[in-house]
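hiii, so i know i said id send this last week but things got crazy w the move. better late than never?? heres the sequnce for the chain we talked about at the cafe, plus the structure i predicted for it. fair warning i was half asleep when i ran it
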Amino acid sequence: MTRFTVNGQPIEYRLDPETPLLWALRDASNLTGTKYGCGTGQCGACTVHVDGRPTRSCQLPIGRLEGSFVTTIEALSRDRSHPVQQAWVAESVPQCGFCQSGMIMAAAALIDRNPAPTDEEIDAAITNLCPCGSYPRIREAIRRAGRMRSGEEQISAAPPPGVDPADAARHVPALSPAAAPKR
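okay and structure toks below
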């Protein structure tokens, strides 16, 4: 058994200690915001924070995490008000969505350490791959999130619409036979 904290909650995983953190989060904890990409630690889609540091979860065995604190995209901010999430929307970064959660987690760790990174510092810290190539917008969103973090800028837009995390697991009643779509 492996014990560590995930999104502020103590967790005990009864999985093989060699199980990658990605699969413990997705399969055992139903935290599906962390994405499977390449499975080799290269693309960054699986990035989470481990003890405050961005970490590729697909290659990290849970047995190495005893006593650690893990934060996933679900806990970055439940209402999507984190500066990186707000700047991501304001700069129209998302396209296909493949890299988004990992990229946001890497960017959040960067602006926590340095709210005014240079392009070189952004490039060094954000090694995640974006298949859509939205890197110029990603850079600008990170700069903007840093300004927001420092109090130099505010975004008045509401968080993007979507499913409230508290509603994600709600039971949805089955359609009655009369309301079911015809095949």
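btw Residues 85 and 162 are 13 Å apart (CA to CA). thought thatd interest u
miss u guys!!
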